[in-house]
Amino acid sequence: MKVQLYADFTCPFSYMGKRRLDQAIEQSGEAVEFELKAFQLTPDASTEKSTPTVDLLAKKFGRTREETLETTKGLRAQAAEMGLQYNYDTMKAPNTKKAHQLTKWAATFGKSQEATEGFFRAIFTEGKDLNLEQDLLSVVEAIGLDTDQAKQVLVNGEYADAVDQDRMEAGHEGIRSVPVFVIDDKYMITGVQPIELFLQTFAKAK
Prior knowledge:
Elements: E1 2-7, H1 12-28, E2 33-38, E3 51-52, H2 53-61, H3 65-71, H4 73-81, E4 92-93, H5 97-107, H6 112-124, H7 133-142, H8 147-155, H9 160-172, E5 180-183, E6 187-190, H10 195-205
Parallel strand pairs: 1-2
Antiparallel strand pairs: 1-5, 3-4, 5-6
Helix pairs in contact: 1-10, 2-3, 5-6, 6-7
């Protein structure tokens, strides 16, 4: 069974959705071919040093940093129920294109799921800045891939076209928000849904 996940690494609901998918796969015992389809919420975000997420949200909604942190309590609690730790006090908002490129590269070694999880965790839990090469490569190293090869992927702009292609496909499919899951090119699940819906959809796809 093939599962494609349209997601972006800065999207809190994408990370929750992926965790629900992971749990559904574990419960079902299905052999799943996983592919991350790149989606960028802010493709024009700076590729220089990232801005703290809370500062961006505070500016967007006209609140103080402290007020903004308070508004994330519900989201943090929701994530914690799934075993995820969202540290908004250290979270940063990078341009995610390079992380998507490296995830596509990792997929050639059968490590798409590991890279996807690693980049989500880097942003939401570890407070890493995925605009910085060293933070990108720390994820690569953690999943057991060669950092020198990863550097060359970035230097040569490899998989950049594939990332852009995913974004175009999302537009053609009418995908405007994430997460979106496509199972065997036939069934679509949108948003953070109960595990039971994934299990039911897996059964239909058999």
